[in-house]
Automatic annotation (TrEMBL):
Assigned keywords, A-Z: Cell projection, Cilium, Cytoplasm, Developmental protein
Cell compartment(s), UniProt: Cell projection, Cilium; Cytoplasm
Domain spans labelled BROMI N-terminal: 12-138
Superkingdom field: Eukaryota
Protein's organism: Muntiacus reevesi
SUPFAM superfamilies in UniProt: ARM repeat, Ypt/Rab-GAP domain of gyp1p
InterPro entries cross-referenced by the UniProt entry: ARM-type_fold, BROMI_C, BROMI_M, BROMI_N, PHAF1/BROMI, Rab-GAP_TBC_sf
Boundaries of every BROMI middle region domain copy: 173-845
Function noted in UniProt: Required for high-level Shh responses in the developing neural tube. Together with CDK20, controls the structure of the primary cilium by coordinating assembly of the ciliary membrane and axoneme, allowing GLI2 to be properly activated in response to Shh signaling.
BROMI C-terminal Rab TBC-like domain ranges (all copies): 855-1245
Biological processes annotated in GO: non-motile cilium assembly
One matching Pfam family: BROMI_N
Lineage: Eukaryota, Metazoa, Chordata, Craniata, Vertebrata
Name of protein: Protein broad-minded
Length: 1250
């Protein structure tokens, strides 16, 4: 037994007294000892001063002294595991350390010791308390007598009963109460007995043997004619529901439900009928509603705790409820004389069936509810469906003015607390609608359908019910039949039906089974079809109804299955099209709205809201590649841009409000409405940037700068609210940054500045919300996790075209001194301050003096940063695919020599980084298949058959012997095939251009510094491959100059295009033969494939439409990468989702791959196969190859999405293991499925937009 000194004992007693004194009010207010214990156990959660109590401080120090060292050792062990490559989250570490601590011997000894100490202290306090009790016994007796006499007048308060009476309420007392409650007793005696019962602790009442008898008696006494007496019984019930365990409240609930069931079943009770309605001021009705309401309150609370009890308790509650609600009276008489069933009264107190929603939420109770509904109480569902059908039929038969008149009369009658029969029917309808809407969410609930109704010949199927709900959104009146003006919209049938349909849309499985079919979509679109025909949509179909329809359509369009249904209909492969699909109709209607070509709503205040709602539906559609393809013919971007320009002019003309004028509020409201509409239109335009082709359309509107500025403003607002809830603009930013004009717009809007400022702030100060479980002894990551997100945002911006716009033709500041307050604001500033540290001033600005001093040392310190730096330097100085260059690892290795790789600090590059890869030329005579392919070129068959024969033979070789298609054989194949195609007018897409310039003519022309650097890299790579010789640099320079002169003849203007990697690739393939290379390019330039393989070919070319030239966007982006994204979503959906989760667009990385002709991503042989495949089989194979690459990389992409570095992985890493020939069969399948659409669009790049 632990020993405690007298001083320590007195100190602990004082601490405990302080604690109990502080929580005295909470404990004395507890209804039972169990509740008091619960209060103490959860004191930390409820008491803000918890950690200031001396006793809590003592416990914390005691635990720290006993277990602190053990916890630290455990944390250090896990930290070392983490450093060795095992990554654990914060919660995982805490859980593990806590578990190990609780299982330890030290913990058990500490608990026992603490328990012994506290037992001594508490026992001493109890003894002292008993002594004080004896000394003040007389005073306590007097207080108890006063309390006993006050119980009868205490208004049922039991706040102190548990502590003061728990030992005084015995079996005899309960029997006495039972006798006193007898109807034969005087009223005063019965009141007093009931008051005593209400004052007793519920737990004591429950433990008495007479409890069951009491419960039965109370149920009988609920029918007592004395309203005060029955009200007090309900008060006891309410108190029991609140304070008692489930097995006690279950008995109270079931007895109350049984009483009500018998009450409604009895013909002796005067239950109102539909014709008389319900007068709430009637005492009998009031008492009945009180009982129903008490039942309903328990229904809504029970699900929060019944899972902790045996299932039979829950099932008894559920069954007693369903049994009560299934009570039906004889229906032989007229409907108007129908006696109201219990469900009408329940609907009055819980109109939206919240009780059913809560019961269906958890699987535990939902299973029981659905099982009972199916086996015994299906009539409940039948009557609910019947009620909805009847209400809809009423809406169809009643005229609009009658419905509105009826609604107005409802408002008058509500003041007298009276509900007419029609109002009760409406309330029951709302309850039924809510109940059915919740039921349909669940599979077992949907299995209850179809429902057979007595009034209909055919059963009501799921589709029938959903069509009915849909029609309610526009057939029913917008003015509800109940509730105060502040709640009108909440209970209108259209709003309720819309809410139910939206909830069903959000449940994918339910939506696919119920909503996504032609019948429901047609019902939704019917008002639009009628309006398009120039007729009124439907009775009472208003702007509000159209807004409801638009909200539902937007939900449907936001899900893949729903979007497919809108785009192609239910039978997307069927050739029969009776009417336009949903997407076409929505686009036509939206365009009419935007162009204000519908007169029925002109001048309405709600008209802009209707327009906004339907353009939002269109936004969901054209925000996807496949959706945009369908909506392009409607030129919605032009209509939205026109509406925005018009609204923008209006906002500029709004007069400035004059203080004191009556028109101030009106002007202010008008201004807000116009500004909101203007922002809505800008947002609609901005969402075109979600796809490559959509970005081209946005660029053509001339509003890209305003849209990007709007996006930045939204981004900035969200940034101020919460760091973790920024607008999901990641993909949009990436798409916009993939074009030169978009990059400029991002810079001008302040977006680039904001990202760089945030990055610098994180580098300088770190993030204040990063959890630190245990600091590491040494950093193991080249970049801090708190900065990674900011760096990735910058990486997203730096696409191939954006780099030149943001960095090109700029020089480094290279200042003599950098102030500590000087914050970078541009990409060039970040390069200057973080990457090219070529001066002491830059080093001092980043590091302290002691840190910067080591930079003067010549020895390398092997840490994670130096390893990363060495990797980067080797990477940027080597060219080649995954098998052609050897890159040093980015992590230290285990063992005695953690980093055996030499540091690259000066030229030449160490030989260990050079691969032994050597390219071999293929002997044409060695292979018979290759000979057959070459033989094809000598035959003079029909042109089409000849081409197909060549392609078929090429595919055969690529599948069987891909390696022989290389070297001289490949060059000969390409030359002959392109020559034949260029001489065939049907195969030529561009006209022949006369070119007569000689080497002497172009010799003096200048190439950009980027091109000169590219030439050096090309020659270095060609020599490494043993394909180029000395002097190749001059020849390649001449080829590039000729190409510039040749293409300039066909260009609308001149601008920077970067280095031509396609020409560089051909030059190496042609073994450095400049004449052969340029001759091939002249012939190749006539073919459609040249537009997509040779990017400078169509750069601002006169062959493109004027608006495309003005946008500066290349066909590879708005055509090839657009279809790459579209096919990726269909063929490799997990990868497509991964891109969106990462806030990155597939189009950007594909543009980079294609622009640099896969250099550094593929080995040379695969680059040759990429070019040959596209030349032989068509430009659409460029798309298929990219899809094949994503399919190949799927697992890597998913992994790097989890580690949140997908952008870095795709931009830096080579395509390991990918071979074009491995995916030929897969690409042939893609060709069969997609070629007609792709080739048609690729050929149409020359067509002027309409």
């Amino acid at each position: 037994m632990a020993r405690v000194s007298g001083e320590d004992e007195a100190m602990l007693q004082a601490m405990l007294r302080q604690l109990f004194q502080s929580v005295k009010e909470k404990i004395t207010g507890a209804p039972s000892l169990e509740c008091a214990e619960e209060i103490l156990l959860h004191l930390e959660e409820t008491d803000e001063n918890f950690h200031n109590y001396e006793f809590v401080k003592y416990l914390r120090q005691y635990i720290c002294n006993t277990l602190g060292s053990m916890i630290e050792e455990e944390m250090e062990k896990w930290t070392s595991d983490q450093n060795q490559g095992e990554e654990f989250g914060y919660d995982t570490v805490v859980q593990h350390v806590t578990k190990r601590t609780q299982e330890s011997k030290e913990y058990k000894e500490m608990i026992q010791s603490l328990k012994n100490i506290m037992m001594i202290v508490v026992e001493s306090m109890i003894n002292k308390f008993e002594e004080d009790e004896i000394r003040s016994q007389e005073r306590q007796k007097k207080i108890q007598k006063e309390k006993s006499s006050s119980y009868c007048t205490d208004n049922c308060s039991d706040s102190d009963s548990s502590f003061n009476q728990s030992y005084k309420f015995c079996q005899g007392k309960l029997q006495l109460i039972l006798d006193q409650l007898d109807p034969g007793q005087p009223k005063e005696v019965r009141y007093e007995a009931l008051q005593t019962l209400c004052s007793a602790p519920p737990s004591d009442v429950l433990n008495c043997e007479n409890w069951t008898t009491l419960c039965e008696k109370l149920t009988v006494y609920l029918s007592d004619p004395d309203p005060v007496f029955s009200d007090r019984i309900l008060k006891f019930y309410a108190q029991t529901f609140t304070l008692s365990p489930l097995h006690m409240t279950k008995e109270i609930y079931t007895s109350l439900a049984k009483y009500l069931e018998l009450y409604f079943a009895s013909r002796e009770n005067h239950i109102p009928t539909l014709s008389t309605g319900i007068d709430i001021s009637n005492p009998n009705v009031t008492h009945l509603l009180k009982k129903i309401r008490l039942l309903n309150e328990y229904q809504k609370e029970a699900p929060s705790f019944w899972i902790r009890h045996p299932e039979k308790y829950m099932e008894e509650i559920v069954e007693s409820t369903l049994s009560l609600l299934s009570v039906k009276h004889d229906q032989s008489h007229l409907v108007s004389q129908k006696i109201l069933d219990p469900i009408y009264f329940l609907a009055l107190v819980d109109t939206k069936a919240v009780w059913f929603k809560k019961w269906m939420h958890a699987y535990y109770s939902r299973t029981a509810v659905l099982r009972l509904l199916e086996k015994k109480y299906k009539s409940l569902i039948t009557t609910a469906v019947q009620q909805c059908v009847q209400y809809f039929e009423l809406c169809e038969t009643m005229k609009g003015d009658e419905v509105l008149g009826h609604s107005k009369s409802c408002g008058i009658k509500q003041k007298t607390f009276y509900y007419s029969g029609q109002e009760l029917q409406y309330i029951y309808f709302i309850h039924s609608l809510s109940l059915l809407g919740r039921l349909l969410i669940y599979t077992q609930g949907r299995k209850l359908f179809p429902i057979k109704l007595k009034t209909r010949k055919d059963s009501v199927s799921l589709t029938d019910l959903l069509v009915l709900f849909t029609q309610l959104t526009y057939h029913s009146p917008t003015c509800p039949k109940m509730a105060s003006p502040g709640h009108l919209e909440n209970y209108s049938p259209a709003s309720m039906a819309t809410e139910v349909l939206c909830i069903l849309c959000d449940q994918k499985e339910c939506a696919i089974e119920c909503l996504y079919n032609n019948s429901v979509i047609e019902a939704l679109l019917q008002p639009i079809r009628n309006l398009m025909k120039g007729t009124k949509a439907a009775p009472n179909c208003s702007e509000t109804a159209l807004i409801h329809i638009a909200h539902i359509l937007a939900r449907i369009a936001s899900v893949e299955e729903g979007l497919t249904l809108l785009l192609y209909g239910e039978n997307m492969n069927s050739s029969e099209e009776k009417s336009p699909t949903g997407a076409h109709l929505i686009a036509q209607f939206s365009k009419k709205l935007l162009d204000e070509d519908i007169s029925i709503f002109s001048g309405s205040e709600m008209f802009p809201v209707v327009k906004g709602a339907f353009t939002s539906v269109c936004r969901q559609i054209y925000g996807t590649c496949e959706g945009l393809q369908v909506l392009i013919p409607y030129s919605l971007h032009e209509s939205i841009a026109k509406a925005w320009k018009k609204t923008s002019l209006l906002s500029e003309r709004i007069p400035t409000p004059v203080e004191g004028s009556d028109s101030v509020s009106l002007v202010s409201q008008e201004s807000q409405n116009i500004m909101a509409w203007e922002e809505n239109l800008l947002d609609d335009l901005l969402n075109f940037a979600a796809t490559p082709k959509g970005l081209l359309l946005l660029q053509r509107t001339g509003a890209i700068n305003e849209c990007v500025t709007f996006m930045f403003n939204q981004y900035a607002k969200k940034l101020q609210i919460s760091r973790h809830k920024k607008f999901d603009y990641g993909v949009l930013v990436t798409q916009v940054a993939s074009t030169a004009a978009g990059a400029v717009a991002l810079q001008n809007s302040g977006f680039v500045n904001a990202i760089i400022t945030e990055l610098w702030a994180n580098l300088e100060c770190g993030r204040d919300d990063v959890r630190v479980t245990h600091p590491r002894y040494t950093p193991v990551d080249p970049i801090d996790q708190s900065c990674q997100k900011s760096f990735l945002a910058l990486v997203n911006l730096l696409s191939y075209p954006a780099v030149f716009e943001l960095v090109g033709n700029q020089s480094l500041p290279n200042k003599a001194e950098y102030s500590l307050r000087e914050v970078p604001t541009s990409v060039i500033d970040i390069i200057d301050r973080l990457i090219i540290l070529n001066s002491e001033a830059k080093i001092r600005s980043l590091f302290n003096y002691e840190q910067s001093h080591i930079f003067g040392l010549r020895d390398f310190i092997i840490d994670s940063l130096s390893v990363e730096r060495n990797h980067v330097l080797v990477r940027i100085n080597l060219i080649g695919g995954p098998m052609e260059r050897i890159l040093p690892p980015r992590l230290l290795e285990k063992g005695n020599e953690p980093y055996p790789w030499p540091m690259f600090s000066s030229y030449p590059l160490p030989n260990c980084y050079l691969s032994d890869c050597v390219t071999r030329s293929t002997d044409l005579k060695q292979d018979s298949d290759l000979g057959k392919l070459l033989l094809c070129f000598k035959m003079s068959d029909k042109q089409t058959a000849w081409i197909e024969n060549c392609r078929r033979q090429f595919c055969k070789i690529m599948k069987a012997k891909p390696d022989i298609i290389s070297g001289g054989a490949l060059v000969e194949l390409l030359e002959k095939f392109v020559l034949h195609l260029s001489e065939s007018p049907s195969e030529c897409c561009f006209p022949s251009v006369e070119y007569t310039a000689t080497d002497a003519n172009v010799k003096n022309e200048n190439l950009s510094s980027v091109q000169q650097l590219g030439i050096k890299m090309t020659v270095r790579y060609g020599k490494f491959l043993n394909l180029l010789k000395d002097g190749a640099e001059n020849d390649l320079t001449l080829v590039l100059k000729h190409c510039e002169r040749f293409l300039k003849q066909q260009q609308a203007s001149r601008s920077h295009t970067g280095h031509d990697w396609f020409v560089s690739s051909l030059f190496i393939m042609m073994l450095g033969d400049k004449e052969k290379t340029f001759q091939f390019l002249q012939q190749f330039s006539r073919l459609l494939t040249s537009a997509f393989l040779w990017l400078p070919r169509l750069h601002i070319s006169r062959y493109l439409p004027v608006d495309t030239i003005e946008s500066g966007i290349h066909p590879v982006y708005f055509c090839s990468t657009h279809y790459i994204e579209m096919l990726l979503k269909a063929e490799v959906p997990l990868v497509f989702s991964a891109f969106h989760m990462s806030g990155f667009a597939p189009s950007q990385i594909c543009l980079q791959w294609i622009t640099q002709c896969f250099w550094n991503y593929l080995d040379w042989i695969e680059i040759c196969h990429y070019i040959a495949t596209c030349v032989f089989l068509g430009p659409d194979y460029q798309v298929y190859i990219c899809i094949a690459i994503f399919k190949h990389l799927q697992q890597d992409i998913l992994q790097h999405t989890q580690t949140q570095d997908l952008q870095v992985f795709l931009k830096e890493e080579a395509l390991h293991g990918f071979r074009v020939s491995d995916y030929f069969e897969y690409m042939e399948i893609l060709e069969q499925n997609y070629r007609p659409v792709l080739l048609r669009d690729m050929r149409n790049i020359r067509v002027q937009s309409t």
